[in-house]
Amino acid sequence: MTKGVLPTAEQVNEVKTRFLQKLESEPPADAFLPEDLKRITDNDLWITKLLEAFDLDVEKTLARLWENLAWRQSYGVYNINESNVNQEYLHDGSIYAHNKDKEGKPLLILSLKKHSKSKNLDDLLRLVVFWIERIHRENDLEKITIFMDMTGSGLGNMDLDFIKSIINMFEANYPYVPNYILVHELPFLLNAAFKLVKTFLPAKALEILRVTTKKDITEYVDKDNCLKLWGGNDDYEYKFE
């Protein structure tokens, strides 16, 4: 992201105008979701965030906005709720949202200790979408810090396909969302596997990737927002509400 460079009103307007013109002249076979179209016509936030994510490139923003709307329609993002995601995964605490980072961005926590390769990848990704959309309903399109909690994890929990798929999902469908990617308490045993992970991360993900330990986690998440498990003061234990 171009730090500190915000799109101009003209750039936002150009994307919006050209998008609406294309929508009228070449409507998609499957109509985009009305909630998403309302997000474009009623304010500039989404387009602004996409322009920032794509370094103010109007053409790229237009193309990716169109792709994003098509994906959201086919995935049925507004139909995903707590009753139709995988119940075991929803309640086991392997993926959940809790607290905020130092910049006030919500934390999406992936507890790798609770992950295994036997889990269904599509169900896990659907749960990630459930949490992102839930956070966005409560915090209008807010950035999110992805907190990969590696505390107590071992080789059996390391699933490159899972990590790759989550990063790809953010890059393809939520490019404007990640604030930081924090990898916390990476066990020495998993160093080699993690080096492999870094080779397939896009450049923008590498820019916001931080590997933290109990000693330095408070640079990104203050003590009161840190679980005791991470070296903080919060004795929260996940229970879906």
Automatic annotation (TrEMBL):
A Pfam family matched in the record: CRAL_TRIO
Residues covered by the CRAL-TRIO domain:
82-238
Q: Which InterPro entries did the record assign?
A: CRAL-TRIO_dom, CRAL-TRIO_dom_sf, CRAL/TRIO_N_dom_sf, ER-organelle_contact
Which top-level group of life is the source organism from?
Answer: Eukaryota
Q: Name one GO cellular component term.
A: endomembrane system
Q: Which PANTHER family match?
A: MOTILE SPERM DOMAIN-CONTAINING PROTEIN 2 (PTHR46384:SF1)
What's the protein called, per UniProt? Answer: GL21069
Tell me which species this is from: Drosophila persimilis
User: Gene encoding it?
Assistant: Dper\GL21069
